[in-house]
């Protein structure tokens, strides 16, 4: 039988008891025979039990422990004592899954069966006293509602949808009272329900499809029926199904990619309310308990009771136990506690709870299986303590973490994020007591206001002997939350160690999703142009039909009124508007996409929207992101100038030698710490006085750079080796610290009080300083400073005595502010200008020595100023300026380069020569944007850069526009604040000037602003705009563009998933536009014009026949001839034009000006269209007219009538000439032959002549076999083909196209 302390636990065993005691002696009520399925109910209010019965029901554990507390006993009534010792059964009961079921009821059976949950009885005063081992409802909102923990399976959603316009209260690690959106990324354009309506609407919004739908429907009317109904229905259905199939495949591919992103796994902590002191998740530890009881069965009981009493009195049980599960990103819910590590993408908008250093990583789960020294009568209440993290192991009273936000806002600087001290120092097992109050979802990425509340921990047991007052509730602790406590979706954890964060906003309510425009269906410019041309064809068809009816004098023909005859003519001429045009173009697009994806020189390129490849050849504006698109976001120290000499590239070795000489002690001497006043030791034999001076300067500037920063080194294991990584808010600072390490001076350690530098050569600690003050970098101040006190003496026992410790102030900053701070010099301006021209980010470094008295005066005044209630910042800045920031000794200038992506410079130059105007839109700082614009050659050498920043007044904005109008060769550099002012008050004026400038650089742009600029350029210029980016902050811009190109970034794939084309490097864009874009546009233009020609020429033949047959609306070519003409007899040769190319790839890259010509749209214009109409009219008239003249007209007959022999002979000649004419015209249009073209033309001719014997219903086969047929055929074909070809040759000779000029053809 189970020991009494065991049968209160959910998974108690039914054997191996510690003490063989009679159940009747311990709990008479529980031993009564009862049905296990219907446990007894106690009546707390209806009937009060006699005292002896209450005493009989006192659990053994309370009696046993209470005996040891006898010395503390207070005078209390016997009833209170007895009732206080009873377990509280009035509240809800918990089961082993973390909900409610078994309690400490001693009248419950020993082996309760699984039973249905019943509503809890109403709470009583007794129930509020709590149980010794029960977790009460510490987060009660009304009454005594207990914690509602998420079950181990899929959490059941709340019934009520949360109103997104109101603030939200989030219970950490628990089920929420409201339902929130799923955390899923979706770039799909359609849902299963919207697919058909939206795609059909899009298709029939094209005039050509609507026209053919009406023509097909007209065949239902008997008087208008011509031939078989399927002749008109089938082509339209085929075209629509091809297009719908392609759209469906594109969207399925998008969904598949979304599913891949949404299935990325994340570690989530699952919480379970502790049960009766077991300290671990119920159901997970029963085997351990059974095993420990067996092995320690014979141990002494007195020590157990003593140990147990000590645990009970020393610390309460943790509220909950937790363990880890891995959930896909899409399954994350509001309130989930997620564990994140270095370089992991943040899957949702979260609030940081706890930060662990790399040495003290978060525990993976409750370590409940650790062996214990001895068993106890009551399970260890603190067995969950292994999961608790001592606050000392966290990164401080408020934990710190760095994140990279370049995928969200484009800024390259790392952002420091802090945890609230309230949550940082709270045991993880208590997180379910937390509530986070957050505002409504907002798109502002730099703003957040909220609070975190910690509910008091309700007393877990009633103890009548305790001195503590049980009735007085504790106050709820709360702490404010701001942007520094958040990590938004799509940012990346940059610091080592682990983070715990609670999900606050999910899916469409995240900052990034709210800044992203909904995806739209994109239609290519070529399709719009063809749509307008088909309207002209329709007008032509309508006019032709009316003219023929008018020529017939509106007579009644075959019992049909004139308007019915006109409608029949419209149907007969329906081939003028070619239904096959769209399907040919759609299949052509698929071929272009295949060429792009299988191009070995741009491997990894993916076509995600296959409907707009021709637009790649029509781009006029390229809007590019900076970070990760033009640059790699990897900073490298390229140059340092120390006044008289500059070091770069290989010359850095000389800097290393100077550092080695300065920080390596002479052999035989005890290593001592170096201070700025230490004598420069150089080999006297080789060093001249000048070299010693230079060496001293180099030492000073390297020492300054190694100390003046906010970098913290961390060590971590990688492939079995210890690797040092650096954490800082700015990549520039990390680049400089890495450079000091490369030249021999390494940052060994840093905390808030001190910093230690190590010599890389000797391995000794050579510099140690105490940090007295740090003045961090701000965008307004543009500089950062530090006051340090140097330790001196032997490296093993350093000293920083107040009397002789050197105090130095170091500062570095932008040349614009440092020029007035450093002492007068004659080289600073010139050298910073030289570095800026190279595109380097310059920092000026200076220092100042402070006496102890000066620093003491500064410190007291600085403290006084920092306590000011008004104008505090100005007061502090005034004190710093008075004591520190004047007459600094100028040490040197550094030049840091943001490494560009591969081949960015030649790519931008080629695109500019191709006539594309390039804009750079970035969320980064003004100085950074300027440097990259110069280094990437976006701004030409010597080009004037007009900067507009922090503009707040409308009159100044107007004057800036006036200035730009007079200087249209300048580059405009504008920040987001000024851009917002222009877009709000001078929208049209600004864009009319900006689109004329060769280059525009916009910095500090929000994702919404980027999208607004793209839309504004599109709407104002009506030109094609291409946007390229790599981050989540670029998705809106990419979707707003006519052509969106995404680069597969190191941190994420949001941009590439949302884009129309995905590439791996920026330089791939050149080939995508200049080569594939050119080919796609030229091929589609030629293909569409030929398809129009093919439909027009057969309609002209029909017109000539109708005129010759007294204007009767009868068909010249019926049924199979009509269908075969537009399919197997001409389709393959015409479609093979998608393989044609006018120039080679090398010529296209060598002469990017050829691309500029494409923007004019001359390949498919009204001029070329009407030329093709003229050719069609000529050839159709010649073919049909000469056939009728030479052979005769005859009379068209219906299927029931006997065919007219003359008519059959005439159709044999005219149709055969028509087919051969089309094949020869295709051959005349080819510029570069491909073997498939030859095979398609020859093969189609063979198919046609091979099928003639089977066309006896349409042709006179005897006549076809005669010589008369062949000479007539040859004459008509020659007259039809020779004149157009002669005119074409003449035109090429008199005015050759540009591609022939560059080829010398």
From TrEMBL:
<feature type="domain" description="P-type ATPase N-terminal">
    <location>
        <begin position="177"/>
        <end position="228"/>
    </location>
</feature>
<dbReference type="GO" id="GO:0006890">
    <property type="term" value="P:retrograde vesicle-mediated transport, Golgi to endoplasmic reticulum"/>
</dbReference>
<dbReference type="GO" id="GO:0140326">
    <property type="term" value="F:ATPase-coupled intramembrane lipid transporter activity"/>
</dbReference>
<keyword id="KW-0547">Nucleotide-binding</keyword>
<feature type="binding site">
    <location>
        <position position="1004"/>
    </location>
    <ligand>
        <name>ATP</name>
    </ligand>
</feature>
<dbReference type="InterPro" id="IPR044492">
    <property type="entry name" value="P_typ_ATPase_HD_dom"/>
</dbReference>
<dbReference type="InterPro" id="IPR023299">
    <property type="entry name" value="ATPase_P-typ_cyto_dom_N"/>
</dbReference>
<dbReference type="InterPro" id="IPR006539">
    <property type="entry name" value="P-type_ATPase_IV"/>
</dbReference>
<dbReference type="GO" id="GO:0016887">
    <property type="term" value="F:ATP hydrolysis activity"/>
</dbReference>
<feature type="transmembrane region" description="Helical">
    <location>
        <begin position="1091"/>
        <end position="1108"/>
    </location>
</feature>
<dbReference type="GO" id="GO:0045332">
    <property type="term" value="P:phospholipid translocation"/>
</dbReference>
<feature type="binding site">
    <location>
        <position position="1033"/>
    </location>
    <ligand>
        <name>ATP</name>
    </ligand>
</feature>
<protein>
    <recommendedName>
        <fullName>Phospholipid-transporting ATPase</fullName>
        <ecNumber>7.6.2.1</ecNumber>
    </recommendedName>
</protein>
<keyword id="KW-0460">Magnesium</keyword>
<feature type="compositionally biased region" description="Basic and acidic residues">
    <location>
        <begin position="82"/>
        <end position="96"/>
    </location>
</feature>
<keyword id="KW-0067">ATP-binding</keyword>
<dbReference type="GO" id="GO:0005886">
    <property type="term" value="C:plasma membrane"/>
</dbReference>
<feature type="transmembrane region" description="Helical">
    <location>
        <begin position="1120"/>
        <end position="1139"/>
    </location>
</feature>
<dbReference type="Pfam" id="PF00702">
    <property type="entry name" value="Hydrolase"/>
</dbReference>
<feature type="binding site">
    <location>
        <position position="777"/>
    </location>
    <ligand>
        <name>ATP</name>
    </ligand>
</feature>
<feature type="binding site">
    <location>
        <position position="812"/>
    </location>
    <ligand>
        <name>ATP</name>
    </ligand>
</feature>
<feature type="region of interest" description="Disordered">
    <location>
        <begin position="149"/>
        <end position="174"/>
    </location>
</feature>
<feature type="transmembrane region" description="Helical">
    <location>
        <begin position="1235"/>
        <end position="1255"/>
    </location>
</feature>
<keyword id="KW-1133">Transmembrane helix</keyword>
<comment type="similarity">
    <text>Belongs to the cation transport ATPase (P-type) (TC 3.A.3) family. Type IV subfamily.</text>
</comment>
<keyword id="KW-0812">Transmembrane</keyword>
<dbReference type="InterPro" id="IPR036412">
    <property type="entry name" value="HAD-like_sf"/>
</dbReference>
<feature type="transmembrane region" description="Helical">
    <location>
        <begin position="1207"/>
        <end position="1228"/>
    </location>
</feature>
<dbReference type="InterPro" id="IPR008250">
    <property type="entry name" value="ATPase_P-typ_transduc_dom_A_sf"/>
</dbReference>
<feature type="binding site">
    <location>
        <position position="923"/>
    </location>
    <ligand>
        <name>ATP</name>
    </ligand>
</feature>
<dbReference type="InterPro" id="IPR001757">
    <property type="entry name" value="P_typ_ATPase"/>
</dbReference>
<dbReference type="Pfam" id="PF16209">
    <property type="entry name" value="PhoLip_ATPase_N"/>
</dbReference>
<dbReference type="GO" id="GO:0006897">
    <property type="term" value="P:endocytosis"/>
</dbReference>
<dbReference type="InterPro" id="IPR023298">
    <property type="entry name" value="ATPase_P-typ_TM_dom_sf"/>
</dbReference>
<feature type="active site" description="4-aspartylphosphate intermediate">
    <location>
        <position position="625"/>
    </location>
</feature>
<feature type="binding site">
    <location>
        <position position="1010"/>
    </location>
    <ligand>
        <name>ATP</name>
    </ligand>
</feature>
<dbReference type="Pfam" id="PF16212">
    <property type="entry name" value="PhoLip_ATPase_C"/>
</dbReference>
<feature type="compositionally biased region" description="Polar residues">
    <location>
        <begin position="357"/>
        <end position="369"/>
    </location>
</feature>
<feature type="transmembrane region" description="Helical">
    <location>
        <begin position="227"/>
        <end position="245"/>
    </location>
</feature>
<feature type="region of interest" description="Disordered">
    <location>
        <begin position="1"/>
        <end position="131"/>
    </location>
</feature>
<keyword id="KW-1278">Translocase</keyword>
<feature type="transmembrane region" description="Helical">
    <location>
        <begin position="562"/>
        <end position="581"/>
    </location>
</feature>
